[in-house]
Design brief:
The structure is a homodimer. Chain A has 9 helices and 4 strands; from the N terminus they run βαβββαααααααα. Chain A is α+β, with helices and mostly antiparallel strands. Chain A folds into 2 domains: about 80 residues, Glutaredoxin (3-Layer(aba) Sandwich); about 130 residues, Glutathione S-transferase Yfyf (Class Pi), Chain A, domain 2 (Up-down Bundle), CATH 1.20.1050. In chain A, β3 and β4 form a beta hairpin. In chain A, α1 packs parallel to α2, α1 crosses α8 and α3 packs antiparallel against α6. In chain A, about 40% of the residues are buried.
Chain lengths: ~240, ~240
């Protein structure tokens, strides 16, 4: 098969190279897992018309020839089916159903717990034209100012670390959610940590947490793809903080 | 293959037919999934010597010929390997690793949330000889009396229903954790609901909750195996409450 031509729309900050969406990171890792390259195009929250062709207004959006696929879960299933001869994202087709629970847990439990720590930081790395949109939609969702949402950082940090209990428990028995090797279940969770890494200085994990060691293993994958990705402030003295 | 002779030790209440352990229920469903029968022996918390042969003090314990296996996760893996020609518990071998996250979530997130609602009810269905042991160990664990632990029922109910968010989210897209058909991932979660059903009258789920509909489907499996199992008080006017 010739190398397919893939286009991926990813959420970007004011720095167009800063790609911080947790859902886009799931797909970024999935593409690397399959050994695929994509033309990764920056997109901002307010660029609704730029992806109107997808019939909705959120990224990631993947263009694969005649196929336009949105929603990270559907993109992962598309990649698995279209590139079935490449390393499987789910280990086996029957495993996708259960992996979807990990994705649901990441989206509905982990994401809100991390949001409480980084929401204001996200605002601050956005392109000027996105900031009002972001503040207005999020402040309506939370019924509070961004500044108020992220108050009491220690409380939110304790809650996040408690939220990670099932992952920590699992990692006592195996190296990855996927078992001995990482798979899409790992990327569903790791995307949330990349969201924070790209936008914020908050240290989400204690260094002696098994979840920290797992995150390090994910940062090392694919020749350090995620570790080397631009984040909000590449201060030399704090490269991996 | 001749029918194997399996012996399963299960936690029982003062009524020896009342088998209420969440972890034993995982295995009960797994055996039915594989079309296996076991000689199911009642065991009480204080019968430590009765299972000393297993090298530890908790049920379930499975005896399968020369194999003695404890810990529900290890028993499930044993059944999957030993009876590989029967319906798979994990869909595919590669799916077991991810299903283990569901098990970790059930054990570390769901179980504590349900415990806050039924701990005193559990105490009340126990055999007389187990009650002091149960009260002492649980009150030490919680640093409070059983009566205090289950106070504020509405608060704990709200928390439980919030805890179920990722499962509810998943069930918006598929019928079971296993996909179109249930598998061991479903039983890991369902065991927690059987624990409550066997010991308590508390209505954990609103009837319009998709999790309620999923639980009904699980209760119907294997000719109503779980639905027909003895629970704490088979009051005719409230058979499925």
């Amino acid at each position: 098969m010739n190398e397919p031509r893939l286009i991926l729309y990813e959420l970007a900050g004011s720095d167009p190279q800063l790609r911080f969406s947790p859902h886009c990171w799931k797909i970024r890792m999935a593409l690397a897992h399959k050994g695929l390259q994509a033309d990764r195009r920056p997109w901002r929250f307010t660029d609704k018309e730029a992806i109107a062709f997808s019939g909705q207004g959120l990224v990631p959006v993947l263009i694969d020839g005649a196929h336009v696929v949105s929603d990270s879960w559907r993109i992962a299933l598309h990649l698995e089916e279209r590139f079935a001869d490449r390393p499987p994202l789910f280990g086996a087709p029957q495993a996708a159903a259960v992996a979807r629970f990990v994705n649901s847990w990441a989206d509905t439990t982990l994401l809100p717990a991390i949001a409480r720590l980084i929401l204001l930081d996200i605002h601050n790395i956005l392109d000027e034209k996105d900031r009002d949109y972001f503040r207005a939609t999020r402040e309506q969702r939370y019924g509070n100012t961004l500044e108020q949402v992220v108050q009491d950082q220690q409380v939110h940090l304790d809650r996040l670390r408690h939220t990670l209990t099932p992952l920590r428990h699992l990692l006592g028995g195996q190296a990855f959610l996927g078992g001995q090797q990482p798979n899409y279940a790992d990327y569903c969770v790791f995307g949330m940590f990349m969201w924070a890494r790209c936008t914020s200085n908050v240290a989400l994990l204690a260094t002696d947490d098994t979840v920290h060691a797992w995150r390090e293993r994910l940062l090392d994958l694919f020749d350090g793809l995620a570790r080397q990705a631009p984040h909000h402030k590449a201060v030399p003295e704090l490269p991996d903080a």
